[in-house]
User: Fold these one by one.
Assistant:
Number 1:
Amino acid sequence: MGKVVSIANQKGGVGKTTTAINLSACISALEKKVLVIDIDPQANTTSGLGLNKKEIKENNEPTIYDLLLTDEEDIEDYSPYIRKTKLKYLDVIPSESDLAGAEIELASVFGREMKLKIHIDRLKDIYDYIFIDCPPSLGLLTVNSFVASDSVLIPIQTEYFALEGLADLLNTIKIIQKRLNKKLTIEGILLTMFDSRVKLAKQVANEIKEWFGDKVYNTIIPKNVRLAEAPSHGKPIILYDILSTGAESYMKLAKEFLRRNRDY
Amino acid sequence: MGKVVSIANQKGGVGKTTTAINLSACISALEKKVLVIDIDPQANTTSGLGLNKKEIKENNEPTIYDLLLTDEEDIEDYSPYIRKTKLKYLDVIPSESDLAGAEIELASVFGREMKLKIHIDRLKDIYDYIFIDCPPSLGLLTVNSFVASDSVLIPIQTEYFALEGLADLLNTIKIIQKRLNKKLTIEGILLTMFDSRVKLAKQVANEIKEWFGDKVYNTIIPKNVRLAEAPSHGKPIILYDILSTGAESYMKLAKEFLRRNRDY
Ligand SMILES: Nc1ncnc2c1ncn2[C@@H]1O[C@H](COP(=O)(O)OP(=O)(O)OP(=O)(O)O)[C@@H](O)[C@H]1O
Ligand SMILES: Nc1ncnc2c1ncn2[C@@H]1O[C@H](COP(=O)(O)OP(=O)(O)OP(=O)(O)O)[C@@H](O)[C@H]1O
Ligand SMILES: [Mg+2]
Ligand SMILES: [Mg+2]
């Protein structure tokens, strides 16, 4: 029975997509079956894993947008929605820019918060782990992801605005736990883009560790330009530059993630 | 008659808030009357200019959220919504986290795209410039900002995902121009967090200049940690560290912005 993890933080540019792509790639390299779902209209996980966004749009290929607007009774087979990647044990359900309109389209639909969960519950048996890359907001798409998930992994940049937004994120998680998904927990807090030479980064990191204790991963992702270059080649870091500190730190994170789930 | 400029890019973490705070602060230092409106539920511009988000929430003080849900006939006087800052010619209309629910609340309201414009049109005569800090999405809040604006200033980080998102942003601006606001133009493209030692940054910068020509500001904002420190002190960079490269570059941008508007 697969575990479903949302990768979320409404603060923009904190490393959600970079973590979704590279943590799922590294875990699949450890021979676990992984599905990553892109529920951000920017579709950065989609292109970062080598899929062609233009082709998906021109050929009208099915994406997460179509899935959210379809009832589960109407789907026999999910394979048209699931794409292969350059890694054997990693699949992806892509996103597209039309998804930006989904929040308004879903706003008045019955059971609008459950539109993702009804499909994920049918995919859980095929994968060991399902990761969902969320958009930078606490709107209906992120709420759908939280309702469908077992836990939330929170990437956080060690800067002031990122720290400030945590209270709102934790609030939203509490509300979802109370009303829509009792079992939702925090999977962990991941410090990203960390530059140990910057005083502010160390201060913010210390504050987060004080606040969250052992929920904070021991693995810290350093600033590493190879991580920013890899998406333009459509590859996760372990295929773009396996010797980089970026690849090393995400591999370390994958092992820590599995150990915390007693699966390594 | 004041000019209204949206500061927008659906890509997260590209410097929208940092630009909204510091460009408006620098222009007000050149003795133009400036209003900055925070329409992002994260309310980073609100706290970055020294307002206390907790107090606003506890005392139930009026914010942009209340304004969007109120008709213009019901407002005699806008002063309860407008706050003073540490700079004489800079005012701010704050945001709050409840705004995250506004997109769903407004979705079925008549004239939902015009909810901001009806108020801004009554404020235009009091200010020389009105800047609007947008959230990282192309949803109803950003659409409201585009409908209320004369132009859009696009901060962009010199990285791959930021470049990839530009096509969707330009598409949205075109749709708004066609259907809701014929006069909307692009104010300019601002390169932010630029590190001249990074090859990727130079490559992306060159691509943007080829694409946008003289729409790209000559002023480039360098990576400068003082810009990331200033918000935790609730001050724009010119009050936090006037001698920093961050302060220098935003002051240069303010003059270029005014020159392009034949106002300097
Ligand atoms: N550890 C790192 N070192 C260097 N660059 C990084 C690192 N992590 C992410 N980046 C780069 O920083 C930018 C922001 O990261 P990313 O897009 O993953 O964040 P995000 O939270 O998904 O953003 P959004 O809020 O827009 O969805 C990207 O250009 C990415 O390539
Ligand atoms: N030129 C710069 N040099 C160094 N740090 C910067 C610079 N500009 C912005 N930052 C920092 O980078 C982070 C992202 O910037 P900012 O919050 O302004 O982006 P944004 O586009 O408003 O993000 P969001 O999409 O979440 O609204 C912040 O922590 C900010 O302090
Ligand atoms: Mg992302
Ligand atoms: Mg912002």
Number 2:
Amino acid sequence: MGRVVAIANQKGGVGKTTTAINLGACLAELGQRVLLCDVDPQGNATTGLGIAKGEREESMYQVIIEGDPMRDAVLPTAVEGLHIVPSSVDLAGAEVELVTTEHREYRLRTALEPMRPRYDFVILDCPPSLGLMTLNALTAADSVLIPLQCEYYAMEGLTQLLRTVQLVQGGLNPSLKIDGIVLTMFDGRTNLSIQVADEVKRYYRDKVYRTVVPRSVRLSEAPSHGRPISRYDPRSRGSEVYRELAKEVLMRGEAG
Amino acid sequence: MGRVVAIANQKGGVGKTTTAINLGACLAELGQRVLLCDVDPQGNATTGLGIAKGEREESMYQVIIEGDPMRDAVLPTAVEGLHIVPSSVDLAGAEVELVTTEHREYRLRTALEPMRPRYDFVILDCPPSLGLMTLNALTAADSVLIPLQCEYYAMEGLTQLLRTVQLVQGGLNPSLKIDGIVLTMFDGRTNLSIQVADEVKRYYRDKVYRTVVPRSVRLSEAPSHGRPISRYDPRSRGSEVYRELAKEVLMRGEAG
Ligand SMILES: Nc1ncnc2c1ncn2[C@@H]1O[C@H](COP(=O)(O)OP(=O)(O)OP(=O)(O)O)[C@@H](O)[C@H]1O
Ligand SMILES: Nc1ncnc2c1ncn2[C@@H]1O[C@H](COP(=O)(O)OP(=O)(O)OP(=O)(O)O)[C@@H](O)[C@H]1O
Ligand SMILES: [Mg+2]
Ligand SMILES: [Mg+2]
């Protein structure tokens, strides 16, 4: 049965989508069968893998709002073993459309049930908010992986995120675990990055992944080519690091 | 009567809060009376100006949800002439709490009415979404200023944002104008930044501010000291640039 991992952080621009795409691609290259669910109405994970939004009839909107089977929305990507459920713009209306629906936080979890046996990993890319889409992802997930940009505001938002995770553990999804915190956009030349990284490691100790993702322009160029970093520039530091992260995620998973 | 300007972009981490704080501070230093409204539940504009969240009874939550007068929530900041209405965490529940309320998109506009004569500028810092808080800001605003990070995903989201602005112009706020696009985190050493900036200037022409904000670590250090850049490091490039931007905002405003 596949592991469902939510990539969440309400702070904007911290590397959620970059981590979802590149961790997904590297896990697939290590032989895992991976499904990436784009739960963000912005649809960056969809276009970052070269898939045009809105081209196909079925997307995450039909799955979550209309209750269509997820297997009808799954698409292959340029990476062998990595599939995606694309997002669409109308997903932005989900919060309002589902407000009177019973169990609206369980829509994604229910839709994922029949897919789990087909994949080793299901990765959920969340929008920058703690609204209904992120709650659906936290309710559907076995664990949550938190990308944390090495900047002041990003650190500030961590307490609010962990409090929301605790609320979900206390009701919607009691078995939700915290996989850990991945430090992103680390720039060793700035005191700010070093200070934030040190503080997070001191405070959260073994909850912090050993793999630290450096700031690297190749990582931000890859999406414009619709490719993960391992296809856009396999010898880059970004590519190496996400391969290391994939191995660490596998290793930590075995340790349970 | 003060100009109400919304700083909006649903893409996360593009420099909305950094622009709201530093443009606000520079306008105040040029003698304008400025009110900064933190409409984001994350509350980064609040802490970025050195104000502890939740310390005071009255915040944006009481104003928007409970209908308390905004003047009861206004606080001075360390910058002469710059006041703030702080945010709080419970603002995150606004979308759900107001769903059955009539005219829920007008709450901020109504609350701002009595404040407008007291200020030359009211700046609204928006969350990274196109939900109810951003809609309230676009409905209350005379114009919208769009910070645009010089990266691929940020450019992608622009069409969706402009479409939302058009929808608001067609109903909730027919007189809403687009002030323009401010390019942020520009790094002249990378092709990506140069390509994005060129493309945006070519396509949006005089809608793009001449002032371009460079990537500068001093800008990301300032919030940890609770100060705008003009107080944290007055001689830095970031400080100069936001002073230029303030002058350009004033100049473009006179031109109407
Ligand atoms: N390690 C990195 N080095 C350099 N740039 C990066 C890195 N990781 C991500 N980026 C770039 O930074 C920007 C923000 O990253 P990304 O979009 O993945 O964050 P996000 O958390 O998914 O954003 P949102 O909150 O809008 O969903 C993107 O333009 C991306 O290409
Ligand atoms: N010109 C700049 N150079 C370097 N760092 C910057 C610059 N502008 C903003 N930053 C930093 O980048 C991060 C994102 O900026 P900021 O928080 O202002 O964006 P935002 O759009 O308000 O984010 P959110 O979508 O979460 O509200 C912050 O850590 C900030 O300090
Ligand atoms: Mg994203
Ligand atoms: Mg912000």
